[in-house]
Amino acid sequence: MSQTYSVSLEKVINNHNLEVVYLPKSADEILIETAEINRPGIVLTGYTDYFDPLRIQILGWTEMGFMYNMSDDEREKALGCWLSLKPAAAVVTRGLDIPDYFESACRRYEVPLLKTKEETSPFLAALIAYLNKELAPRITRHGVLVEVYGEGVLITGESGAGKSEAAIELIKRGHRLIADDAVEIRKISDKTLMGNSPSNIRHFVELRGIGIIDARRIFGMGAVKPSEKIDMVIQLEAWDSTKAYDRLGLDNEYARILDVKVPAITVPITPGRNLAVIVETAAMNNRQKKMGFNAAKDLMKSLGMDEIIPQDKEVEIWQN
Residues 24-33: contacts with CB within 8 Å, 24+ apart? Predict the structure, then answer.
C-alpha cells in the first residue's frame, strides 16, 4: 500500500497568508490529506453524493451570492447539509465579508473558516500547486542533484564515483547545487519529478580527504537552490572493458523513478575524465533534444542511414 502524506492547516495558512476567522482547535493539529479542492455550490442545493470531506472548500462570489439570496430556512438547511459533512476547511476569497449566519454555522459544526483577499481562480491554482508539492509521493535516494544551464541533473553512482567532486566543479563553473548525498524526490504530476535536499543536510557537501563543507557559505547564495525539477539522470560507473557503451546516443534511454520516465545516460569513469564538462554537455544536449534536435539522428540522416529506428531502453539507476 502506497504511503500517504499530510500537511498541517497551519502551514497552509502561513504559506498563503490566510486570515483566520474561526478554528475549532489549533491549526497545527488539523491535517490536510488531499490536494483536491472543492467549490461547494452543488452541495448547497442538497446533492451530497461523492462529496469528499477531506477537501478544502473554496467560496467566491457565486457561492456567497447564492447563500445570500436564500431565505433563512433554505440557508440554514443548505449550510447544515454541507457543514454537517465536516469538510476540512472553508476559505472565502476576494476579501468578501463573511455574514454572521455563515460564521455561526461554521462554529456550530466546528469547521475551520478562513479568508483571503486573493481572487478565486489564482488562489485555487496556487493552493493546488502547493498541496501537490507537499502531499506528493516521495522517495529519498543516494545521489547528487544540480542545476546545469536550467536543467535539473540527478547524478547517481556508487560511493566514491566522484559525484560530489563533480558537483563542486559545477558550482565553481556557475551552476547550482540542490542536494548532495541524499536527494528527496517528489512526484508532482504524472510527468514531473521535483528534487530537494532533506533540511538537516541542505547545502552541505562531503568531500573525501577534506570532510564536510557548506557550499552556501563558501561559494555564496548563488551557488545553491532549494529545489529543482529532475530533467535527466546521469549514472556514473567504473569503466568496464567488456561492456559496449553507447557511442552515438541514437537510442533513447530512460530511468523510471516513481513510475515517471526520465531521460538517462550512463557515463563510464576513467582517470582524467572531466566529469563537470561531461555533465554540462549532457545537460545542453538533453535541452536540445527537448527542443526537437537530435545530433545522432541528424548525423544518420546526413549519412543516408535515417531508416535506422531509435529504440527506447530503460536503465536501472539504483540497486535495491
Answer: 24/107, 24/110, 24/111, 24/112, 27/112, 30/88, 30/89, 30/112, 31/6, 31/7, 32/6, 32/7, 32/8, 32/56, 32/88, 32/89, 32/131, 32/135, 33/4, 33/5, 33/6, 33/88, 33/135
